[in-house]
Amino acid sequence: MAGPQHKPSRFSYCLTVLCGLIAGCGQAGFVPATGTVTLNGAPLADVNVSFIPESEGEPAYGTTNAEGIFALTTRLAQGARAGSYHVLVTPATRPGSARGSAKPQTRTTEQKGAAIPSIYASKATSPLIVTLPHQEPILLELEAETH
């Protein structure tokens, strides 16, 4: 009777190893990607940064903090796959803004005195292209016309 007790533990061990190998393979090809977004030289806080692959692949996303710094992630892993990306920068929304609020609470940089030019919101118009891996932190320098 001691023999059948060993089979489930051996099976459990093999299953654990197999799951670990599969999970580890999901990270293959991903590189860390961090950077800063500025508008006319000033850090741009609370904006979404989207990296859209030039060819097929999964997009990567991040949101800037108060210093304009972001870190990319995908639904599969931290970072992004190596390759070339069109970069989009759009205003972030406050968490919970869609919940029963009579007035939309979209946080735009316009409310802070600076508006993100619409050119950066579309893959067709954004001039921002980044190739990963990138040796240094990525610097996305947006420019707005000043009147």
Topology of this structure?
Layout: H1 2-25, E1 30-31, E2 34-39, E3 42-43, E4 47-53, E5 60-63, E6 69-71, E7 80-81, E8 83-91, E9 129-132, E10 138-142
Parallel strand pairs: 2-10
Antiparallel strand pairs: 1-7, 2-3, 2-6, 4-5, 4-8, 8-9
Characterization of this structure:
- The structure is a single chain.
- The protein is an alpha+beta fold.
- The chain has one domain (31-142): Immunoglobulin-like, CATH 2.60.40.
- It contains 1 helix and 10 strands, in the order αββββββββββ.
- The chain has one helix spanning 2-25, and strands at 30-31, 34-39, 42-43, 47-53, 60-63, 69-71, 80-81, 83-91, 129-132, 138-142.
- β2 and β3 (42-43) form a beta hairpin.
- The longest helix has 24 residues, at 2-25.
- The protein is globular and about 45 Å long.
- The N and C termini lie far apart (86 Å).
- The model is unreliable at 11-26 and 96-113 (pLDDT under 50).
Strand tally: 10
Helical content band: 10-25%
Give me the strand/helix succession.
Answer: HEEEEEEEEEE
Distance between the termini: 86 Å
Give the name of the CATH architecture: Sandwich
Low-confidence stretches: 11-26, 96-113
Taking all residues together, what is the mean pLDDT? 77
Radius of gyration over all CA atoms, rounded: 21 Å
